[in-house]
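Posting this for the archive.
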Amino acid sequence: MENLTISLDKIYDFVKKDQIKGFKKDLEKHNKSLTDKTGKGNDFLGWVDLPSSISEKELKDIQKTANYLKNNVEVVVVIGIGGSYLGAKAVNDALLHSFDILHTSKNPVVLYAGQNLSEDYLFELLEVLKDLSYAIIVISKSGTTTEPAVAFRLLKKQLECQLTKLEVQKRIIAITDESKGALKQLADQEGYKTYVIPDNVGGRYSVLTPVGLLPIAVAGFDIKKLVEGAKKMEELTSVDVKFEDNPAAQYAAARNALYASNKLVEIMVNYNPKLHFLAEWWKQLYGESEGKEGKGIFPASVDFTTDLHSMGQYVQDGQRILFETVLTVANSKHKLIVPKDKEDLDSLNFLSGKRIDEVNKKAEEGTILAHIAGGVPVIKIEIPELNEYYLGQLIYFFEKACALSGYLLNVNPFDQPGVEAYKKNMFILLKKPGYENQKI
């Protein structure tokens, strides 16, 4: 079976191979410290061996809960913010039919809440759920994070107005701390089914815990295959693999070599709109892990060819402080041929008989060549196809590379002290008890 591959040949006009190799010794040391769990933030390294440690029993229990929801409700609302929802949404959006809203499916529609504080969004969500059978998966370690806590209050209240207490109990699943926190306390009081967010796994690394696995299983996808793919990438990036053969180490080295050459912005590029939210998940993973102590590459993303008609000009001719990482899928799921047209008024008969994917791949190839000529280095990451197994590989690949890259920057990739600044100011402005005497 093929695996994820990484190509660095399109960056060697900008950084030398020796610069990449120069990181070898440090990356081997950092990879060992991740494996031994002795590096910075070592109390949050539970994700490192997570794929190989997930038991069949755990997966079966998650699948059983997912099957219950699939058989009893029309909609499942996943409540969470940041890593508590982005991983699940990334996988689900990548695998769902592009027009799922109009596509007949035996699985519940998965919606998301708690990722914003928009009054209109929440009002309209409650409005559409009013006449539907729905369940809630609420994800929060503490149960007090403002955005998900507000959404949960509203959705729980509406559910309690529609159903008996026993029915509500069956319709709410809490994924939270094992022993403490407001959500854990409420779940114990009300008798909700619960799953644990491991203490040693941070939110943005939590896709392969119940945080991501339950919503993905509810949407109808094979979580066993997802974990198998991640387990394979765990093997491919282990300390036993040579630096030259380790895709995560190669990516971390390439990014840091480019960063040292004043390439301060990384643009994640995809040519398949199904990968839009994979890039959103990637942005949180890298932005929150590396962006501290005045350091870090700024993560951005575009959907090509769509954004070539909006952002393409800047990428081609703007400030030369950026590089691209192109995420490509070798084989599309479906086959569609460009038809021949008798009149050929659009002058596209030269494409007739070609697959749409071939046209898309040539657009990708042509864009890469143009951007390199314009002074933009390009890293290319390819997966054979878009399915659970290769998404599992991709997720673990990015997680491992992110940790290694953070260690090269000499930061702790597993904390996020800057996130608290907005919360403090918001609580002062809202006059939260305990914040009366604090100043912005």
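Residues 160 and 167 are 9 Å apart (CA to CA). The chain has two domains: 5-41+229-418, 50-226.
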